[in-house]
Design brief:
about 500 residues, alpha+beta, 6-stranded mixed β-sheet, 4-stranded mixed β-sheet, 18 helices, 14 strands, globular, binds 2'-deoxycytidine-5'-triphosphate, binds magnesium ion
Length: about 500
């Protein structure tokens, strides 16, 4: 398209949301190849391609420098880069695990509004987070276009506050990318703007491992810079472009000039016609649709040299309180089965910071919206967290922490009634045992119900152990007085050893 042409947005394509949201799009760099390089670090400096059938589905950036590109035939890639190392990428399981970890991190730490797109991309609506932050003059990473505003752009300059919001969004995006790098090990690119289509488009402006922010007054420039075909617009795939072509629309210009009636005839659906018509102008009111409930919920704070246990515990308590508030705000009624404490220790000798996490099974919490929920949950969690802290920081006099974090994981639905407490507990027990990181609840109980696995039992908090024992005692009494017997789902039914 002609870059100097200013696109006039027709009245029925004007956004109903304006620039009110702040959206970050995150895309992992050469995703499959990065997963392979993480597992096999000596591949990092070599040109690497990931092969499915006779196609290189992706390749690392060393290979890209040699001209190899995504979705190239293996034979062609080999010609361009004779030293190309090829790994088979047909089993997607490992890629899925890494993909989940990224989405999980974003959901638990940044926003509940995270929408996955394919395996390596996420849209995150950070509007709420941005509102809560103080204004900033700094943009993190690149800014799309020139910061010097031309006359036309000055005319387009927006005074709704979106410049400030996307600036804060760029800082959030940088924090997201740092967290993904540090905790999952992947580098990513990010795009920041006020809607999904623009955030995705601008994110690919600087690759790899970079981020770009688009201000509203540069949106027209970005759309005008796109290659001519309709496929340049994210969301318009092969099927849709074929459909458009059959209706005589092949270029982005054609699409911009097509009326809603024409598009409705092509799609047979007025909603889709309107969405596509708007996309062609960089207008996108579609929401970030959360892709499932978060698997964890956590907060972390960088701290300035915490080096005494008292300070650390005060910080952990404050973080836990905030985390409980977030849990209450989650409003889906789920309770966590596991609590995880993270510390980042500064090692004076190596001059490096190192993260470490430990987790424990959660004690039974009071009803989520009860008055005492916060205080009594805190009282139950703190001894566990102190125990985890002591395990990770055994020398009380000699440590230096630069970050502390508390997270809830292993969420379960918890309904009322006895049967449900056990369904709440079961995955906790399994998880605590599998991880081997759960705190062993010290137990003085020598005798256990016959169907209960001792390892599982030991991994549970004291109250739950007591409940199991009480339930067992109760059952024995019931059995010895048959008149009282009634069929009831009990906690121990769920803890039977596997047959
Ligand atoms: N993928 C695939 N087949 C396709 C497209 C992609 O198997 N037709 C896989 C391989 C990629 C992953 O999906 O690693 C993510 O796709 P991207 O388009 O985001 O490509 P990359 O992440 O590999 O590279 P980039 O750095 O350009 O994002
Ligand atoms: Mg990618
Ligand atoms: Mg991608």
């Amino acid at each position: 398209m002609d870059e100097d042409q200013v696109i006039m947005i027709p009245p029925d394509c004007v956004s109903s949301l304006g620039h009110s949201r702040t959206i970050v799009h995150i895309d992992a760099d050469c995703f499959y190849a990065q997963v392979e390089m993480l597992e096999n670090p000596e591949l990092r400096d070599k040109p690497l391609g990931v092969q499915q059938k006779n196609i290189v589905v992706t390749c690392n950036y060393v290979a890209r420098e040699k001209g190899v590109s995504k979705l190239m035939l293996v034979a062609e890639a080999r010609k361009l880069s004779p030293g190309l190392v090829l790994v088979n990428g047909e089993d997607l399981a490992r890629y899925r695990v890494m993909s989940d970890r990224v989405t999980d991190l974003l959901q638990s730490r940044f926003s509940s509004l995270v929408e996955r797109l394919g395996l390596d991309e996420n849209f995150v609506d950070v509007s709420e987070m941005v509102k809560a932050r103080t204004p900033t003059a700094q943009v993190a990473g690149h800014v799309y276009g020139d910061l010097v505003r031309e006359e036309e752009e000055q005319r387009l300059e927006c005074h709704c506050g979106c410049d400030q919001r996307v600036k804060i969004g760029s800082q959030v995006a940088q924090e997201m990318r740092e967290a993904i790098r540090e905790e999952v090990g992947l580098t990513t690119c990010a795009g920041v703007s006020y809607n999904k289509v623009l955030a995705k488009l601008v994110g690919s402006q600087h690759k790899p491992n970079q981020q770009t922010t688009l201000f509203s007054w540069q949106a027209h420039k970005l759309i005008s810079s796109l290659p001519g075909g309709v496929r340049a617009i994210p969301g318009i795939g092969r099927q849709m472009s074929d459909l458009l072509k059959s209706g005589g629309i092949s270029s982005l210009c054609d699409l911009q000039q097509a009326g809603l009636d024409t598009l409705m005839t092509i799609f047979g659906n007025s909603d889709r016609a309107s969405v596509v018509q708007k996309l062609a102008f960089g207008v996108d009111d579609t929401p970030v649709k959360p892709s499932g409930r978060p698997k964890s919920l956590g907060i972390e704070d960088a701290v300035k040299g915490v080096n005494c246990a008292q300070d650390a515990e005060a910080k952990i308590e404050a973080l836990s309180g905030r985390l409980l508030d977030l849990l209450t705000a989650q409003q889906d009624g789920r309770l966590p089965g596991t609590v995880r404490l993270t510390v980042r220790k500064w090692d004076k000798a190596t001059k490096e910071a190192r993260r470490e996490s430990r987790q424990a099974a959660m004690p039974a919490l009071p009803p989520l919206h009860s008055e005492t929920f916060r205080a009594s949950s805190l009282a139950k969690m703190m001894p566990l967290l102190k125990e985890l802290f002591a395990k990770m920081v055994p020398d009380k006099n000699e440590f230096h922490l630069t970050l502390l974090g508390v997270a809830f994981t292993n969420f379960c639905d918890r309904k009322s009634g006895k049967g449900s407490i056990s369904s709440f507990l079961q995955p906790v027990a399994k998880k605590a045992r599998l991880d081997g990181t759960g705190v062993e609840a010290s137990t003085s109980h020598g005798l256990l119900p016959p169907e209960v696995d001792r390892d599982v039992f030991n991994s549970l908090p004291a109250e739950m152990q007591e409940e199991i024992l009480a339930d067992w005692k109760n059952r024995q009494q019931t059995l010895s007085s048959p008149t009282k017997a009634k069929k009831k789902c009990t906690i121990n039914d769920y803890f039977g050893k596997k047959k």
